[in-house]
Amino acid sequence: MAPLAFNSTIPIIDFAPFATGNPVAQREIADQISRACRGVGFFYVCNHGIPQALVNQVFEQMQALFALPLEKKSQLAWSDEVSNRGYVGIERERLDPSQPGDLKEAFNLGKQEAASPSALTMNRWPDDLEGFQPTLLTFWQACAEEMLRILQAFAIALDLPKDFFTPLHDEYDNTLRLLHYPPIAQLPKPGQIRAGAHSDYGSLTLLFQDDIGGLEVQTVSGEWVAAVPIPGTLLVNLGDLMQRWTNDVFRSTPHRVRVPPTEKQGQHRYSIAYFCHPNPKSAIACLPSCHSEQHPPQYPSILAGDYLLSRLQATY
């Protein structure tokens, strides 16, 4: 394997030792994750469990999806915060509600329901892209399994039983989001960028980037640093509910996708985000290892589903 690029702010964690099941190795990986989560709130994972060939297939399928005519994509349109599925057009979403709409389009998928799903919870599949649905469902499952492995490491890092988070995420109320940032065809509006500054909403996010770049992460000091694409890795960041769970011990970090410099504005950018959310009825209350007399609980208990819905309502 070729040497990985080095980022002095966002650490790179080799997850292979965790998969061995050795408690000492798992503790070491958990300690590395703990340091990242207490600091920048982002970390790269190499030697994760998602095959690169599958990731490549998803990028190919999403490029075909976003190349469809707008009329076709609009037939799959996102309709409401409860479903949170379907196609989201350019400027439809404002991740920073104080700024103009984002210069991106997206396609959201939820878990594939079993028999007789409600119309509100049905995924919207394009009918003329061969292989799209099976590829995305296979990828969905791979991300769900990786999510649980990483949550095990989080639990160890927080001095909890290894499977503490597993039953709190076993309904897989997650969102797989395909993202396309088209070339910049005209001068952006004041304050408009490709994805406005925001923090994610749930427990954690798995992010896969192409090689174009543009993602930036805000450090504790307020500086924006590039989260450069590193081949063969996935990028993990925390969401707001994990920060609430940990009483601000772990950090849900603001991030954004900037408008590229002029010489790169003709390029397409693609990324894949898998947003991991607790079960809707999971109560998010301060974990026992994250408070003390000197650091009492900072947040009231809240149901995960109620928090997610409130954040989505503010975004659209």
Description:
This protein has 316 residues and is of the alpha+beta class. The protein has a single domain, classed as Sandwich (Jelly Rolls). Helices cover 27% and strands 19% of the residues. It is built from seven helices and 14 strands. It has helices at 16-19, 23-38, 52-66, 70-74, 132-157, 240-245, 304-315, and strands spanning 12-14, 42-46, 86-88, 105-109, 175-181, 195-198, 204-209, 215-218, 224-226, 234-238, 255-257, 269-276, 283-284, 302-303. The strands form three sheets. An eight-stranded mixed β-sheet has the order 1-2-10-7-12-5-4-3. A four-stranded antiparallel β-sheet has the order 6-11-8-9, with no helix packed on it. Strands 13-14 form a two-stranded antiparallel sheet. A hairpin with a 5-residue loop joins strand 8 and strand 9 (224-226). Helix 2 crosses helix 5 and helix 3 (52-66) packs across helix 5. The longest helix is centred in the middle third of the chain and has 26 residues, at 132-157. It is globular, with a radius of gyration of 19 Å. It starts with 11 loop residues before the first strand and ends with a helix. Mean pLDDT is 91; it is low at 1-7.
